[in-house]
What we know:
The protein is of the alpha/beta class.
Amino acid sequence: MTKSDIIIIGSGLGGLEVALMMAKEGRKVLVLERQHQAGGCMQSYRRGRLNFDTGLHYVGGLEEGGQLYDAFESLGLMTLPWKQMDADCFEEIHIGGRTFRWPQGKKRFINAMKSYFPDEEKGLDLYGELLDCTDELWMQKTNAWEYLTSIISDPLLLQVLSAPATCKMELRKETLPLFTYVHGIAPFIESSWRLAGDGNMLVSCLVEQIRAYGGEVLTDKDVVSLKEEDGRIVQALCADGTSYEADFFVSNAHPAVTCSLVGESALMKKVFRRRMGMQPNTFGIFTLHLQLRSGSLPYFNHNKLVFAEPDCWDMAVDKSLAVKGIMMSARIPEKGGNVVNIDILTPMLWEVVEEYDGTKLFHRPKAYKEMKARVAEQCLALAETVIPGLGEMILKTWSSTPLTYKDYNLTPEGSAFGFRKDFSNPMMTIVSPKTQIPNLFMTGQSLMLHGLHGVTMTAAYTCQEINQNTISE
Ligand SMILES: Cc1cc2nc3c(=O)[nH]c(=O)nc-3n(C[C@H](O)[C@H](O)[C@H](O)COP(=O)(O)OP(=O)(O)OC[C@H]3O[C@@H](n4cnc5c(N)ncnc54)[C@H](O)[C@@H]3O)c2cc1C
C-alpha cells in the first residue's frame, strides 16, 4: 500500500470523524481497526433477527442551530433518520417515590422543575444560566457537586437534576468537573434524538464518505506497535504482519494503549507514559438487552430512569452486586407501534469482573454468567416497578459487562468513558491531542469530553492541532 498522509489507529466515532475531516481537506487517510467491524462503541451487533446497539442510545443538540447540528451537518450525519424524542418528556425519572418528567427546551425544562419544586425558583434560574455557559474555563476548575449544592438546597431536586447523568458520566462527588456535567446534560435539554436504525448506520455513513474522499478503512488490523525513526513515527505494524507508512499518525485508542504502542522512545518521556497509564478511568456499564414478545408493550419515546434510593451519585454496581438505579431505552420499532427491543443500563465497577479478565468471549466461566444473571434479575426488578409485567413480555435476553468492552475496544478496565475527569487536576480535565512525538496525535473520549457530542468536539480539536502542526512544519 502506498504511503498515507495520515494513519488513524482505531475506528471509533473519534477516529472516523478525524479521518473524514482530514480526508475532506484533501489528505490521504487510512484507518486501521483491530476489530472485524468498524465503529468501536458505535457498532451494533446482531442476535437472532435483531440488531442491538452498544454505545448509542440517544443524542442531544441536533435541532437546527443546536450544539451538535453544524458538526453533524458537515460530517454528512444529518442525512440519517434522526427522530426527536417526546417534547414533553424525554427523560422520565422515578426517584424518591415520585415521578419527574423532563421536557425539551431550556425554558420549558426550567419551568417544569419549578412546578415540581416551587421553593427553588432562584436556584433553578441560576441552573438555567449554567446550561448556557458550556465552554468556560472556570467550569473546568469547579466541582460539579459543590456547585450544584451551592445553588440548590432541596436534596431531592439535586438528585433529579443529576439522575439522567448516571449512565452518561461518572457522578463522583469528589472529582466530577462542572464542565463535564454541563456538557453531558445541556445538549440533551436543548433537544434529544434517537436514530431510527442502529449505530452501524452512523458508522457506514462515515466510512462511505471517507472512501468517497479517497481514504480507506481496514478492519482486522490490530496495531501492535508504532515504529519510531529520528524522532518521528514512520510505520504502524499490525498483528497480522502487515505494516503501513504515513507522515502523521492519530491514535483513537485509549491514551494508555497509545503509549504502549510506542516502544523505546527518546521523545516520549516516562513521566508522560506514567500519567497516561496511571490516570483513573470511569466505571463501565452493564447492559441488559431484552427482546420482547411482539405486541406486548407500546413504544415509549423517552428514557425511563428508575432509582432504588433517592441517591444517584456514586451508584455503580460493586462487588455486592446491588443495582441502585437503571436507565431504560427502547429502540424505535421498524414496524408498528410496539417495542421489540429495550436496553437496560446500569453503571458497573471493574472490580466486579476483574477476576474474569483473560477468559475468552463466549467461553466465560459459570461464575461470571451467574454474576450477570444476578445483576440482570435486579435490573428487571427495578424495571418492573414502572413497567408491571415486563418479565412476562420477555422472549430473550443478552447482557454485556465492562469486560465485554475491554475485550472488544481495548479500553482499560472496560471503562465506558475513558479517563475520569477531575476538576482538581486541570492537566487531566482536558488532555492535549499532541504527544511528545511531533507527528503522533490522539483523539477520542479520554481527551476532553465523551459521548457523541463530546467525541465530535474532541475530533475537531485534534484536527485543529494537526493542521497547526503540519502547517508550521
Ligand atoms: C454502554 C454505553 C452506552 C452509551 N450510550 C451513549 C449514548 O446514548 N449517547 C452518547 O452520546 N454516548 C453514549 N455512550 C458514549 C459513546 O459511545 C462514547 O463516548 C464514544 O463512542 C467513544 O468513542 P471513541 O472514538 O472515543 O472510542 P471507542 O469507541 O472506544 O473507539 C476506539 C476504537 O479503537 C480501536 N482500537 C483500540 N486499540 C487499537 C489498536 N491497537 N489497533 C487498532 N484499533 C484499535 C477499538 O477497537 C475501537 O474501535 C455510551 C457508551 C457506553 C459504553
